[in-house]
Design goal:
Blueprint: H1 15-18, H2 20-24, E1 30-31, H3 43-54, H4 65-79, E2 88-91, H5 94-105, E3 111-116, H6 121-128, E4 132-137, E5 139-141, E6 144-146, H7 149-159, E7 161-167, H8 179-191, E8 195-199, E9 226-230, H9 231-235, E10 243-246, H10 250-263, H11 270-282, H12 284-305, E11 312-313, E12 321-325, H13 335-342, E13 345-346, E14 348-349, E15 364-368, H14 373-392
Parallel strand pairs: 1-13, 3-4, 3-7, 7-8, 8-9
Antiparallel strand pairs: 2-10, 5-6, 9-10, 11-12, 12-15, 14-15
Helix pairs in contact: 3-11, 4-11, 5-6, 5-10, 7-8, 12-14
């Protein structure tokens, strides 16, 4: 079995561990924020990279057929998603790929709809490309989020939306959308001629009892959904800067290719392709080990927080990111002080995932569970100790 455990990545030029001072003003916090794993990548990936380095030549690279075949096989066997090779493009990341795709397929001022809260670079993509953002809030009941389809369709129609950016599985709320939810959203987009662009980067991080359904698999007819996914979240390869873009429509592929050509975009690093190919070919057993670790970490954190009536933990169906609302015990004004000074942790703050950012009244934190059990146990102990101190004061919050 692959060795996955790493206790600390401090002093390895790791963004999660070594940029705490820049982001949080303190270096001594336990980092549960940046969405990568504190696990070693699969042994098959490390071995493939060693072989590539040991040959000692780093000249121009021809992308091998194995790279594309590994992607197609993985999607077919793991997600029943029969893609075609000519649909595939490689980008240096989902975010950079989205910037380029939006630039290729839309015009300044065009409306792009996102569901809030959502992965915050979506807002930056819309704003920095000069497009118009349309916000469609998710509906939350007892911590579980769903879609108001009537409002969803109304927002599409009233704003002449050109692209709907779908986050599936959803980051940060942890939903794996059901077939009914996805079909409802896709049907609305079809009726109004809206292009669906699905960020499915977390599509392999699915907890038991749930199934990821690719948006593309539910669509019939023209203007099929465009999809992004990657080995980066699945196999902890974010630093490799390799993501897969699926564009089924020939006309849209031609527009994207022309846009990339104007930018002078290159094919990426040799080692990116080596790592991704090895991961998709041989990494499945490692992934199963990691999924079991994430499931155990989720159970540990949920059980630790269960005694506190003022805390709401959203169901974690997909991703390794737990969405926790502290609002029943901690005020928005006191949130940062409580989390950093009292709990000693560095999370992603919920307000980061709303368009108004600091002005948002949201009291969630997002906790990264892709870490060794000892790390999550320490985080749970620190959070619960801080919550017990609040409860002991018999105060409604801080």
């Amino acid at each position: 079995m692959d060795e996955i455990g790493l206790l600390s990545r401090r002093n390895t030029d790791c963004a999660k561990w070594d940029s705490l001072g820049e982001t949080f003003g303190r270096e001594d916090l336990l980092p549960l924020w940046v969405a990568d794993m504190d696990f070693k990548s699969p042994q098959c990936v490390r071995q493939a990279l060693h072989r590539a380095v040991d040959q000692g030549v780093f000249g121009y690279y021809q992308i091998p057929d194995r790279y594309y075949e590994s992607i197609l096989r993985w999607e077919r066997e793991r997600h029943n998603n029969p893609l075609q090779r000519e649909w595939l493009r490689t980008t240096s990341g989902v975010v950079s790929g989205l910037f380029h795709l939006v630039g290729a397929l839309t015009n300044p001022g065009d409306a792009i709809m996102v569901q809030t809260p959502v992965y915050y670079p979506f807002y930056r993509i819309i704003r920095h490309t000069g497009r118009q953002a349309v916000y469609q809030p998710l509906v939350m009941e007892q911590g579980r989020y769903t879609v108001d389809l009537a409002d969803f369709e109304r927002k599409l129609a009233e704003n002449d939306v050109k692209i709907f950016l779908l986050c599936s599985p959803h980051n940060p709320v942890g939903r794996v959308w059901s077939r009914e939810e996805l079909t409802g959203m896709l049907d609305c987009c079809r009726r109004h001629g809206v292009q669906v662009v699905a960020d499915e980067i977390h599509h392999d991080i699915i907890l038991p009892g749930h199934t990821h359904i690719p948006a593309l698999s539910l669509w019939e007819g023209e203007r099929k959904p465009i999809t992004f996914f990657s080995a980066s979240k699945t196999f902890n390869l974010a630093g490799m800067k390799n993501s897969i873009l699926v564009i089924p429509q020939k006309e849209q592929r031609e527009k994207f290719d022309a846009f990339e050509k104007e930018l002078g975009t290159g094919p990426g690093s040799t080692l990116d392709y080596v790592a991704v190919t090895a991961a998709f070919e041989e990494g499945a057993p490692w992934l199963e080990t990691v999924l079991a670790e994430i499931q155990g970490n989720e159970r540990l954190m949920r059980e630790a927080l269960a005694p506190f009536d003022g805390i709401t933990v959203s169901p974690l169906e997909g991703t390794y990111l737990l969405w926790v609302d502290l609002g029943g015990m901690v005020s928005r004004e006191g949130l940062h002080t409580f989390v950093q000074d009292q709990c000693g942790i560095a999370p992603d703050y919920g307000h980061w995932f709303f368009p108004e950012n600091e002005a948002s009244p949201d009291t969630h934190i997002r906790l990264n569970l892709a870490a060794p059990r000892a790390t999550i146990r320490r985080a749970a102990d620190q959070i619960t100790a801080a919550l017990q101190r609040i409860r002991g004061r018999s105060l409604p919050g801080i």
